[in-house]
Amino acid sequence: MTAVQKVAIAGAGVAGLATAIFLARAGVEVDLYDAQPALSTRGSGITLQGNALRVFDELGVWDEVSAAGKAFEGLNLRAPGPGAPVVAALPDLKTGGPDYPSTMGMSRPDLARILLAAAERHGARVHFGTRVTGVSQTGDGVEVEVDGEPTGTFDLLVGADGLHSAVRELIGIHVSPEQTGMGIWRTFVSLPPEVDRSELYYGGPMYIAGYTPTGDDTMYAFLVEAAQDRSHATPEEARRIMVEQSRAYDGPWNHIRADIEAGADANYTWFTRHLVDAPWNRGRVVIIGDAAHSCPPTIAQGAAQGLEDAAVLSELLVQRDAVDQALWDAFHERRVARAKAIVDASVQLGQWQLDGVRDADMGGLMFGVAQLTAARA
């Protein structure tokens, strides 16, 4: 007997789709609502650490994910300037355990496609072009309004609808993402033959320049700068800016620039952070993933933390027989402090750079995070 029989989920991102898979596979009736008209086919890449890969295996999609992405071990640090020499080759801790690679890169649209197919295969009903606009709770259920119309009563509503979560606002949690002071240019390009793992360049005109393989012939590349208003840049201007800002970086960046000049898209977003203090639920409505916490991608744990939220929440809902305070206490005990540690560490790495701290123990901080995430949530 599960604690829920009928669940609504807002948001078809990683956390929402993972929750849908876990619950639908356990026999729960799942309706997922997403404001996008269809699953996005656009986007750059994503870096996934071992703890995320472990959850994919629990979801039953690891074989598909591993086939679609590019697994690798370790991280190279390169110096800016002529030749871009490798100055350090760092090992990665296998945070998912010995059965998984330490890191994988893949296309975000490919990951979304795999998760959506699995959710639907297990019986979840996914409704695109629909938005949760209202909630009204009773003692043992929550009435959900979609696009201004009542759509039914559910045992639980999961708000996995991202940074600017509508569900978060609907239940009176007025916490919003805050800028951290950095902005990032991203592009999706072909894979240079000499790149077989993530590489980062510290120094030069950017705070960070880097790239991650996402397949046998693709990768995404990025430049991190002081946050600016780039909202008025046309696609052509965006490409020109990214090309010019990357000229201090040699080696594989020459290949990246050629692809951008040939028409690869350049996209810009700001780094943000937020963390909702416990509790993440209000009665029978709970927020997870980017709705509850977000951080800069400096440690590449954003998607992994959303996946862990989904795994822990679903485990409790499937293994227990009531949505009660004991369930919520167990959920928050396992998730809030862990998410806070990831948010704080991710922000700290960026802040050290913004402040020009030369003796910051970045390696020690990242190793501490790796040890934390190696333990199951």
TrEMBL record:
Keywords: Monooxygenase, Oxidoreductase. SUPFAM superfamilies: FAD/NAD(P)-binding domain. InterPro entries: FAD-bd, FAD-dep_Monooxygenase_BioMet, FAD/NAD-bd_sf. The keyword Iron does not apply. The keyword tRNA-binding does not apply. Pfam families: FAD_binding_3. GO terms for molecular function: FAD binding; monooxygenase activity. This is 2-polyprenyl-6-methoxyphenol hydroxylase. It comes from Microbacterium testaceum.
